Amino acid sequence: MRKSTKLAFAFVALAGVVGTAAYAQEKGDGMRDGVRMRLQKALKDNDGGITFDQFEAAMNPQLTKILADNGGKVTVEQLAAALEKARFEQMAKRIISRYDTKGDGVLTQEDVTARQKKVFALLDKNNDGKIEKNELPKGGRGHRLEGAE
């Protein structure tokens, strides 16, 4: 089999994996909100019409960047590492934005302590300096404390 045919098959397989992952995250009409927003922005930026190149750039900029960073080809290991890194960077940004009391993008022990004191105060409903079983939220997993965000 020719090298170009092998590359074409590999790209189709990669596109299928990425497409399957995207499909798993879809909403009711089959389009993720992020994709819809990027396409709407591309339409707005280009007077209501977009070319294939503009469409391609809007569809999955993360995958395009990963490919560019790796010379136009990626292995499963490279793609997994890049996606994992991006996922953990996103999680880190959310944690810092939640705890960072000074708004400087840096997390300190003081920030963590301040957040914990705030959550403790919300849980200690009778203000006796301790949390009792009846003061814990009744919700299941993922239950958020009001005012703790």
Automatic annotation (TrEMBL):
Any one Gene Ontology molecular-function term assigned to this protein's record: calcium ion binding
Domain EF-hand positions: 111-146
UniProt keyword list: Signal
Region entry Disordered, spans: 129-149
Signal peptide (residue range): 1-24
Keyword Signal: yes
InterPro entries: EF-hand-dom_pair, EF_Hand_1_Ca_BS, EF_hand_dom
SUPFAM superfamilies, per the entry: EF-hand (SSF47473)
UniProt cross-references to PROSITE patterns, sorted A to Z: EF_HAND_1, EF_HAND_2
Name of protein: EF-hand domain-containing protein
